[in-house]
Amino acid sequence: MKRSSVAAPANLQRARATLESVSSVKNVGQWQYYHPNNWAIDLSVCLARDGNQFLPNESRWYVVVSALYPEGPIEIYPAKKGGIACTFWHQNFNGAGDGKDWGAFEWRTGKLCLDHPFNSFTDFEPVGVEERLAWHLDRTVQWCEHALDETLVEPDHPFELPQYPHTSDAPGAVAFSEDAISYAEWQDIGAREGFVQLKWVSTTPSFFVTCEFQDARKAPVKSLSWGAGLQKLFSDKDSIGLWVLLEAIPVDPPWAFPNTWGDLYSQCLSGRTDLKQLLDQHSKSIRDGKEHFVLVGYPVPEKFGDEPSRINWSALMLPPLTDKKRSGTNKYARKDRAGGFRKNEEGFIKADNMWIRHATMPVPWCPTFNWAPDQLGTRGSLDPVAQEQRVLLIGAGALGSLFAENWVRAGGVVTLILDVDQLLAGNLARHTLSLVDVGQNKAVSLACRLNMLNPHLNCEGSRKNLLSHTHEEFKKLTEAIDVIVDCTGADDVLAFLKGDRAERQLQYVSLSTGYEAERLYAFSSHEIAFPLDKFRELYGEWKHLDREAIQANGLPWEGVGCWHPLVPARIDSLSVLAGQAVRFMERAILDRPEKRFEVWLSSGVLAENTANTRNKSAAGQS
User: Fold this and answer.
1) Range list of H helices, 554-598
2) I need a labelling partner for 441 at 20 to 30 A (CA). Which of 77, 161, 340, 382 fits?
3) What is the 3-state secondary structure (H, E, C) of 68-79?
C-alpha cells in the first residue's frame, strides 16, 4: 500500500535531482513509498518525433527502486494512466495490473528489460547515487526510440519468445525436446493436429513431459524416449492432451502472446488454422472431468531473421469440460454451466464456448521448457563431437565419480560403469554419492545418480569385474562403446586392456592421481588395444615422485586391525583434477592423436615438462 507521508531517503532525493537533466525525461513526480520497502516515482518520456499506434511521442512511466538505493534493483514500468498498453520485445507481458498482486500499484506489469546490451546499448551500469538512476532513464529513452524505429531486435540478435501472460498460478508445466533434427522430422509428418500423450513427473513442483504425438485418429506420428532417471520419476498419472502445429508464432503486435481466447483464435486464423473448430471437434475425446493440456506449436529460428530451425511448444490448460455429471469447477464457470443448452455434445460445446473459452476470457497459459540436449547445455557444454561419444567408465571411486559427474553435466554420455566395490561411509569424504548409497555397489549407485543429472541419459552400472570378461564378452561389451576410461589406477586393468580384445579402434583414456592428488596423470590413445608399454614409459618419469612422498609421509589407514593403507587426497584437489581430466579427454577426442600424455597439477596448471611429450605425441613422434 502506498504511504505518501513517508519522507524519501536522502540518496533518492539526490538521484531525483539528476533526472531533469536526462534528455527527453519530463514532468518528474515525487517519490512515493510502497510496501514492501520500495519507492516509486512517475515521469514522462517525451520524444521529439511522432509516435505511432503502439507508442505515443509522450508516455508516462514509473520507476521502482529499493529503499537501499543505490543498491538493489531498478525496475521501470508503463503507467496505468498515460503509459503504453501493448507489449514490445525486451519487455515483460504488459498486462493491466489489475490482479491481486498489482491492484495497489499505479503501473502495469510490462517491466522493461534494460539489463542486457542491444543495438547501441553497450555501456556498463554505473553504481553511484547520481549516476545510476539517470543511466536507467537514459536507456529507457533509447528503448522508446528503438521501439518506434522497430529496431529493438535486429537480424543476428538471439530469438526471444514473448513472456506468457499470468502463468504464476498455472496448474502445471510441460517439458518437451525439440531441435534441428526433430524439426526436419516434423517436415515429413503430414499431420498438423491431434492428440498428445504426456507423463506426469511427480516432483515438487510437478510437471509433465511429452511422450507421443498422435494424429486425429490417435495413430502415433512422433514418439520421444526419455532417459532412465526421468522415467524413474514418472507416476502412474498419464495425461492426454490436444496439439496443433501452426505455420508461425501466434503473437499480438508488436510482440505478445494472445491474452484472450478471442485474440488467440484470431492469430491462429491468420495462420490458416481454425483453433476454435479444432477444439470443438476433439472436445468429446477429453470430456472426462479432468484438466487437459493443449499444445500450440510453431517454428522458431535461432536468431531473428534466420530460417526456422526447431519447433517450440506453448501450452494452455483446459479445465474440466461440461458434461452431464458436473457443472464444472473452473474459476470462470457458473453453478449450472450447461444451463440453457441441451445436454448433448452440441450443447456441451456451446456451454464450453460460453463458460470456458469465451472470446473475452483470458487464455490459461502454462510454462513450457525445451529440454533438448543443446538447450540444456547453453550454460556450458562439451564440443558436440565429444557429446556423441559413448563412454565405458572402469572404476567408480573418487576420481571416477567426479570425472563422470563433470562429463555428464557438460552433456557427455556415460553408457556403462564397471566397479565391484561397495560404497563405504569413509568414501563420502571425496565421492559424489551420499549416505543413502552406503553399502550399495558404487557402479550401480553412480549410474543412478548420473541418470538423474540429464533427462536423456541411459547409464547402466555393473558390479561385474572387468577382469572376469572373456574375449567374446568384452567384444560384446564394447560394441556400443567409443571411449574406454580407466579410473582405477590398477595395473591389472591396463594389462587386461592391452590384450587384442577389441574388433575396432577405440579411444583409450587412463586417468590416475598422485600422492594427495597433487598431480593428474592423463594418457590417451586411439588404437585397437591399450598401449601399456608406452604408457609405462611416459608415466615412469613421474612415478618416483609419488614413491618418495609415500616414503617421507607414509599412508593413512582406516579402522583398526589389519593395516589397509589408503591413498590420501582431498576432494577439493580431486575436483580440480577431475575438471582437467574432462578437458583432457575432450581434446583427445577432437584431436585423435596416436598417443597423448599430460600431467596436471592440482593448482590447475599443466606440468611444464610434459608439454614437449604432448606435442611430440600429437605429431606422431612417440
Assistant:
1) 571-591
2) 382
3) CCCCCCEEEEEE
